[in-house]
User: Fold this.
Amino acid sequence: MMMAPLILWFRRDLRLADQPMLAAAAATGRPLLPVFILDPETEAIGAAARWRLDLAVRAFSTELARLGAAMVFRRGPALAVLQGLVAETAAGGVWWSRLYDPASVARDTGVKAALKAAGIEARSFAGHLLHEPWQVQTGQGGPYRVFTPFWTTIRRRDVAEPVAAPVRLRGIGGLPPSDRPEAWRMGAAMRRGASVVLPHQTVGEAAAGRRLADFMGGPVSDYAGGRDVPARAVTSGLSENLAYGEIGPRQIWQAGMRARDAGAAGAETFLKEMGWREFSYHLLHHFPAMARDSWRDGWQDFPWRGDSPEAERWRRGMTGEPLVDAGMREMYVTGRMHNRVRMVVASYLTKHLLTHWRIGLDWFADCLTDWDPAANAMGWQWVAGCGPDAAPWFRIFNPAGQAARFDPDGLYRRRWLAELSPRPGAEARSFFDAVPRDWGLDPAAPYPAPMMALDEGRRRALAAWQRREG
Assistant:
């Protein structure tokens, strides 16, 4: 059994370096069978994330094959697929990297229990986070609920250097049958939008490494002062690669520390953003209901509106508020949205339109190629006022005021709103190529009037909050 094959179940850890599970497996000298499973949990993720995952896993499978271990693709419930592969290969163990969202935890717990009951080694590894959620506790022994003390604690902790990528892997002889991933059509729900969004993706481990190096080589110095200006290219873009594990958090952390020690002015602020990612996952681990339910007590009965024609206009980037619409269209064209603008569009939906944050959460989950279950849940609840470390309810982002402050020259808005320019650029026009035809949108049509006066929306939101407060 010591030399029986190991099945390596890859999910959101699609890289060779900073990959503890793969490094440990390679060190055993045992034959390795990498596998990717299109299980119901994976099929349930949003259209853009599922399509982008397909790009990531196919790129990673090429790298594994180059090192000597071809990947097998199978579709079906994870436990049944893994049990079948164990029987076909006489494998002695199944290893994987941990995930922390509720659906993954439930699946993985069941898989581990069933495999162990059958005498099969089932082992999970760290790698998705800087620190495991159960390793960071308050002085009283519980989880942190507020970011600042959490950050103070993890900021003092050492983060291990990333493990090196293996230079060779030992594959198994007699590879079992594999599905053809292209036959799965994981990107089918993207329809004609796929060709529009594709040029904006940076796929694979090598590309993610170059992106990190480019950022640390220059833009990080301006990050603290420029990260809130959506027209400036001073953010890292690494959320896309982190989402699929094309780069590891320890790689980013150590690069940020080196930049900070070298005097890069924005490196500390950038590291703090990594801390927010960590915080969101620790909270999701300890409070899994946060994925769908209001985290703060007393918010379950808040009179949020359900779906509506106004929410549909928000989804389509046709609210008549230029900064909101620019953000929604950026997301539809690129699969991402600038973080400052994410807060503005979320505030507009949940406060000016008094629409339930889950409607926004679900739309982002369907449209973002950098979708992350923990960051998405925490971000929406933070803006809505019902989440951990939430912004006060009376903090209502005014889209016009935010535009005047962070997009004073209108560069960002003109980049994405074709109707506001006599000669719109290719990116603004491409939004109309990506959206469903049945939306009936036309770049030559007049830009829509605002759905409401911003001061009226603010008064309505504050009145609803005050009624809740009693």
Notes: Residues 47-67 form the longest helix (21 residues). Residues 6-126 form a domain with the Rossmann fold fold (CATH 3.40.50.620).
